[in-house]
Amino acid sequence: MNYSIDMTRVGQFLFFFVFISLQGFSQQKYWVLFKDKDLNASAAISETCKENRRAIGVAEIQITDYPVNKKYINGLKSNGIFAINESRWLNGISSYLTYSQIQYIKSLPFVQEIIPIEGKLIITKTNLDKPHLKAEDDLRVDYVMKQIGIEGFLQAGLNGKGITIGVIDAGYYGVSDSPALGHLFTEQRILGIRDYINPKKTNHFDERETSSDFHGTEVLTAITGKSQDEKLILGLATQARFYLARTDTGGREFRGEEDNWVSAMEWMDSLGVRLINTSLGYAKGFSNAKEDYKPDQMNGNTSIIARAAKIATEEKGIVVVVSAGNEGGDRDWRIISTPADAEGTIAVGATNETGLKMGYSSVGPDFLEYLKPNVACYSLYGTSLAAPVITGFVACMLQANPKLTNKEIKNYLQKSSSLYPFGNNFLGYGIPNAAKALDLIRSQTKEPLESRNITRTLSIPENESQAEIAVKEGEVVTVFYKKTPYLVLSQDAQRVKRNSIVLKRNSKVKHTTVVTTEEVIEVIWL
User: Fold this and answer.
1) 121-249+258-445: which CATH architecture?
2) Would you state the pLDDT for residue 299?
């Protein structure tokens, strides 16, 4: 199979990769989904998976655990239609199809739907010449640990020990040579790895195929990395175990391998993995422009991986942490990519040092009935490195209470965050705090909550043109100007002078959120 490459750089650190197969205009890749299953077959899950489900009150065996009906697969095979990947969750296969094959499949009584597969993979490229973070970046990495209040976890002795994390990404070149990841090998905490791009590959960490092969290494570092002397912590889950999957590549021109992503999710679920990080997303870039995703399709239900993410979060009880996307500066898109659009996922945006949204960080669409992104944290290099910070955060929460459900984790994570309860489509509920998250977890056992956001609401009468808010002299506050309770028009950071800030009425602004070190204030302009 031959491929061409078309790489476009957007900004200093963001790359988009468009995958276009030159296999021939006669064939494209599709999902073929079936109507039913053979329930006499055995469910394809492990005992660990069953035990985990019992522990969190999820049905031990579900219809989506049964394999795809082999009679259907064999029937298609006898007509020259071969499966690339099989999906238990979606009940179907992916395959390259000609026009005539599509027409044939449409006539089959057991076929439910045919869906084209092709999309643009969106990942953040960082430090392409190094398989791990450079020394001069350590201060910035250390900053995000301070921002989320790492001391809350350290004082409680939490580091992800006993938690298994799945990482679905674009490559892991250099993992074995990275000083920050050496503990994963000396302590044998990489439990398994699959390469869905090159299934025959055996040297997963030392063989570089493309420039994207660093990406998963950097994501892994942001989840579990630490210096050899343990004085610098690069990720919160330094004692976690890992399953790794490579589902995409940017070095040669592929169609977006969404089916690989689904297969990796199913593999990890079958092993009993409850927490998965994926710093990948899909938005646009179909070879047939008529089949491109449109912004209004980022609705949590359209894309095949959003459907799979919905199954993972709603049926399987998996915590799926995903980067929100780096399209915030793209006027033709701006919003989150998929699967961040799936309601049950934890979509992570990126902030700067003052707690404002980074320009590249994707925003939540105005048509969703739920808030996206969900939370955010500091990342200079893209939401790809913000998501793994939150994954490590969740690992510590699970270590504190392994019986937490994914819905409880998401709820506590959001409630511990800096903007709660006044979330918005720029940063979700803001930056999580470790101590607050632990307080919320402990509240299940009736322990007192020591720290919560202090909040208040100010209603400004229609006849008043401004609002003055008392704040400590010299403090830097962040301000979000919103046209609704959730949709942000603009943001800024202000250094307080004369112990107050003054907000002036604007006909377009109906709500203003002011975040200080002590409280979150929601101003409502009547």
Assistant:
1) 3-Layer(aba) Sandwich (3.40)
2) 96
